[in-house]
């Protein structure tokens, strides 16, 4: 009996190893190269207040503003206006802006959330760049908490630092409101993030993150994932380059209208996490110095 159990254990280990090798080969073969940082001709311009075309700036230019806010939006006609009213109301109190306070970049094709944010980041003018979700789930004045988090990280190596908004402090409350199945998915995802990609950050998926201009340039120019799991790769890249990261608790409220389908979205993100790790391990993806947009 003991011999049979030993043989089964060896067989099981061999099958797991074979499966891992097979998955690694698939991850390597199917790995796409770095997504092209190419802008379509229509994406190089925005319309100013007079309806005239103006050329968008580049993140590799010198900053001309203190803060840029990048808000990805796709079919957000119901939630975006509320978020924008709150954000602009807050920013107007901090500093008066001219007619160029809002710029709309219309993408020729759907690049995914990560791809849309990257295009916005690459056209930003701020010394600091904030990414914020269109649903307004995080209260915009909490940007002050992120700014303090960045300041506390000083001195910044090569002027690079990141402050991540976090909902980890709300985890117990959210568990009480979720089904057991969704709670299990959440814990499974958190484990995979910790085990495969990012250590020390409890909430990688909060869409409220503040970057120094140099940190945004370095991380987004190395990003491969353009869909929902892009946050994880972004922080993986930041930790690889030893960019200091602060995780800051923010006020957060769940807003109806999420485009995530719980089971399938988590399954897709789980696959993305595994492939992120395997593709970097096998050398299919390599982290290089900052690339400029073509």
Key structural traits:
294 residues, globular, 44% helix, Spore Coat Polysaccharide Biosynthesis Protein SpsA, Chain A, alpha/beta, 9 helices, 5-stranded mixed sheet, 11% strand, two-stranded antiparallel ribbon
Describe the 3D structure:
One of its GO terms (molecular function) is dolichyl-phosphate beta-glucosyltransferase activity. Belongs to the glycosyltransferase 2 family. Its EC number is 2.4.1.117. It is found in: Endoplasmic reticulum membrane. This protein has a single domain, classed as Spore Coat Polysaccharide Biosynthesis Protein SpsA, Chain A. Helices cover 44% and strands 11% of the residues. It has helices at residues 2-30, 80-94, 112-121, 143-152, 171-177, 180-197, 213-220, 230-240, 262-281, and strands at residues 45-47, 53-55, 65-70, 126-131, 162-166, 209-212, 245-249. β1 (45-47) and β2 (53-55) form a beta hairpin. It is globular, with a radius of gyration of 21 Å. It starts with a helix and ends in a 13-residue tail after the last helix. The mean pLDDT is 83.
